[in-house]
Amino acid sequence: MSAVVAACQTYQPAQLTRLPDLLSEVTALTISPSDLPLPELSTHPFDPSRPLDMDEVAMIAVVNNPGLKAMRDQVGVAEAQAFAARLLPNPQFSFACGALISGVGATTSSVSATLGEDIVPLLTRSARRRATSANERSVRLNLLWQE
Prior knowledge:
The chain has helices at about 55-65, 65-85, 120-125, 125-145; strands at about 90-100, 110-115. It is mainly alpha-helical and about 150 residues long.
């Protein structure tokens, strides 16, 4: 008797865009000043229907810059890596049952169960957490510097 438990995952390719996701119309931009890195801009209203001042031009440059958008994506990757470093490794469990069919003295079946845990990720967990936290901070500070 044998039992198999498996998870199924399918792959579906995503269509890549050929053009950058930059907005060509200033009026189509929506900028939340509270999301920008400088606290001085958090109270500055962004209204593209009136003439733009220098702060609003800087907001547009920061929000609509493809290089900065790519760096913001790198921040997301660094956050995901920091989250993954906090996870504990999965234990592994296996169970087997073997039935004896024939032979002299075939009176008992065999049963075995195994529970295993890789302890190396547990031993290096704190170092990995510190390293990924430092990397996340570095990526965030680099983005802040570029912005």
